[in-house]
Amino acid sequence: xxxxxxxRSIRKYTNQxxxxxxxxKILKAGMAAPSAQNEQPxxxxxxxxxxxxxxxxxxxxxxxxxxxxxxxxxVCGDTSLARGDKWPQDCSAATxxxxxxxxxxxxxxxxxxxYPDKDRIEPLKELLNLPACIIPFSIVSLGYPAETRxxxxxxxxxxxxxxxWENL
Length: 168
Known about the structure:
Layout: H1 2-6, H2 20-31, E1 42-47, H3 50-55, E2 71-78, H4 87-104, E3 108-113, H5 118-128, E4 134-143
């Protein structure tokens, strides 16, 4: 529970490299996510190459932190593995698990949306040489935090409805 409430979007990182063990731990958390009919329609592209990380902000306006990140992981949906249209939910669950594991491991992270924005999908597919059946869903930027952000309580009782919709 601590990681859930402590997790914050971190966009500034130190120069310390992430170990392969930490990256694997984060990937294992992503792959532990629930998926519809247990299809697990995901693939993950680890980006450590600074030249590639510098290209992404040219087409993704909210990814300016990537050149300073230790690495990024692109969460992709594989339409050849998905029997239906639930792969975005599955990739969302995988992305969230990765953010929580990063927090638990002391790594800063931020979720960068790709899908369904074609102006982000197509350039990223080209940059990473992704096959036609692979759709980039999100990018998780990772690095040792060079900033701190305090957790906040987002619970809002006015958004809770019991049995049917009523204003509380």
